[in-house]
Amino acid sequence: MKVIVLGGGVVGVTTAYYLARGGAQVTVIERQEGPALETSFANAGQVSPGYSTPWAAPGIPVKALKWMLQRHAPLAIRADGSLFQLQWMTQMLKNCTSTRYAVNKERMTRVAEYSRDCLRQLRADTGIEYDQRTLGTLQVFRTAKQLAAAQNDIAVLRECEVPFRELRADELPDIEPALAHAQGLVGGLHLPGDETGDCHQFTKQLAALARAAGVEFRFGTAVQRLITQGRHVTGVQLGQPGAADGETLEADRVVVALGCASRQLLTTLGLNLPVYPVKGYSLTVPIVHETLAPVSTVMDETYKVAVTRLGEHIRVGGMAELAGHDLRLNPRRRETLEMVTHGLFAGAGDLPDASFWTGLRPMTPDGTPVLGRAPGWDNLLVNTGHGTLGWTMACGSGKLVADLTLGRTPDIRTEGLGLDRYTNDSWSRPNDGRQSPIHA
Ligand SMILES: Cc1cc2nc3c(=O)[nH]c(=O)nc-3n(C[C@H](O)[C@H](O)[C@H](O)COP(=O)(O)OP(=O)(O)OC[C@H]3O[C@@H](n4cnc5c(N)ncnc54)[C@H](O)[C@@H]3O)c2cc1C
User: Fold this and answer.
1) Ligand 1 centre distance from Cα of residue 167 (Å)
2) What top-tier enzyme class does this entry carry (predicted)?
3) Is residue 335 part of a domain?
4) Which of 34, 54, 231, 399 is 20 to 30 A from 154 via CA?
5) Of the segments 65-79, 232-246, 367-381, which one has the largest average pLDDT value?
6) Which tens digit of pLDDT belongs to each residue from 268-305?
């Protein structure tokens, strides 16, 4: 079976790897000159099933209004002039009820837990290395209100049997010794099953393994459009948008894993993929004092900033800007990342020497990715919309979508993961229909 995977970020490359292992003849189309050079390049490095939490949560609408007035706010909104931005935000607000939050968190946790298991298996199978550690995530709180709100997450963690430990302020250094010097923390939640690692390094290594297994990578090559016949995709047209048509590639199946560019491509087929580019920033800081640095990930709940140890560096990532496909670096965001790093791990890294980066998270309004068959199309599949957790969910999503592409039954339930949950005005109620696998 010939499969074309569109997109060579962490999601596209994991999909290609699992497809090749399943016996498919795979070609990956990627517009950049190598793998993981867009959103998968410098994310916060968390592989965090325990922290798989939708942004759409009870209390967020009120918090968002307050954040508008704060200098170091985790969220900023700038009108991008599109109706889609307003529709997306409306749908996100509809998901801010406790009922929807629980449904969405269960779906995200289901994919993320499976993904962590797939990653572990992949590591055992291949020996892949990417500055990984398996020391968990420590969420830290600065107010009693945050501690109380964490109880909702704890209820879902219990239900999903995810291990956790609640910590008093004086117990935080048991997990992260350098936090002994931090001020203003009232407690924390430790998720020992979480991992950390460099997503770019992982994707590069995995692309090399996939190539060795027969996957063809076409870097520096853009997909222009999908070629269709009835409800069937026959292939892809290469070439830059607006330029003359380039080469045409034929395929039996096509998987769309273009991150934030997926929506535009699928719109041409009449599909409404609710994936908005949510801009984030990161700093990569060289470590100068080992004992003052984090050993794993610390998630600062107040600023929604994650501080992660990656080899000889600290990766600090966070913030969400809803401002369209804008990749300009805003120096005020750097100030926030530096402030949080200094507050938690003063003296650990060389902040002036840090590299500053931005990326666009492909995000759905309910936080759950869109995995599986595109409704109405018999050989087109989607693997995107992973938002804040694309690294965490990549291996599981790649394996699941590869299984569906190959007509196999996935290892986990697919209920509520497909694009069909957004059709027929079903935004606000769970879709209990099990997705049927495509058969060859
Ligand atoms: C600041 C920040 C911190 C984050 N921290 C974490 C974290 O700690 N843990 C976590 O799990 N996730 C994190 N994420 C999210 C994670 O990085 C993303 O969800 C993930 O990288 C998305 O991967 P992707 O493969 O879907 O998208 P991408 O990596 O963007 O891949 C899509 C690819 O498609 C290619 N493409 C687009 N259009 C075309 C075209 N027309 N033709 C050919 N190729 C095309 C692009 O070049 C790109 O390489 C973070 C994100 C940000 C921004």
Assistant:
1) 33
2) oxidoreductase
3) yes
4) 399
5) 367-381
6) 999 999 999 999 999 999 999 999 999 999 999 999 99
